[in-house]
């Protein structure tokens, strides 16, 4: 097993390198980069995020001059050169690529183009929101879905299975952002009740509260966004758990165990559980990455939570390359490590599984 773990750790390096290389060159050659956005802002037609660049480069607009950037007609070439130097585009693309790799090996992600802040500090400042949403959502999803899926498998075709399947289907059909809007309308001062706060992870006076009051305030703010995330996530895992257990229940070893006089509870949790849970655990890394870093973006926007999902989205829109590549690098690295942990968990659940021969 140690050899397998070492080999998987070594495989992370070329995998991460390949992902970063492909995305780097695709993003770099795509139109609408930071230089073009700064030019658009300079001409009064761009986004406000590039105001720092436009105001920091004092050049006069002159007629004439050709450029490789869209919308640069009539803009002083010296101004464009200053923008290229500011964003690092005055260097060849290959040189920028190897410079990025060398910095990322040292976990030096540079500074955001538009926020005047180090990318590492920026990501760390957003992590409490995403970790809070991801941690409690994942925990509740698994605590609800696994027992419910097992119960549905053991009562397959009965009334409990039928009406819970209806609820699961409806929950799966409702997008999380629709549920979030409904919750705001109903319980956050929309049209009915004003029971829960509408924005932020904590109250403004959070630091002045006692420890118990802080815990209460924290979960009070998380109730609606976590509920919206759970409702849209537990349906798939519930049906996966049910089908996995249902498939195992009808196998020959279960029939043999019953013939030997084993109780249903012993068969279910002593034999079926280990085999059926392997398929459920296989989706855990993807679930963690999806909920922590991408799936929460709409929830963060609706409930005014400033987390990693919103940061990544805004970075793509604004072509904030340091934040884009740093987020991709960290998310990919975490995903690869979680996948390895998932494989190791297989052997803990079922010692018969071994990766040594692979």
TrEMBL record:
Location of the ABC transmembrane type-1 domain: 127-342
Membrane-related topology note: Multi-pass membrane protein
Principal location listed in the UniProt entry: membrane
Keywords from the named record: Cell inner membrane, Cell membrane, Membrane, Transmembrane, Transmembrane helix, Transport
Record-linked Pfam families: BPD_transp_1
GO cellular component: plasma membrane
Annotated Gene3D superfamilies: MetI-like
Record-linked InterPro entries: MetI-like, MetI-like_sf
Subcellular location field: Cell inner membrane; Cell membrane
Cited function: Probably part of a binding-protein-dependent transport system. Probably responsible for the translocation of the substrate across the membrane.
Family: Belongs to the binding-protein-dependent transport system permease family.
Protein name: Inner membrane ABC transporter permease protein YejB
Organism of this sequence: Psychromonas ingrahamii (strain DSM 17664 / CCUG 51855 / 37)
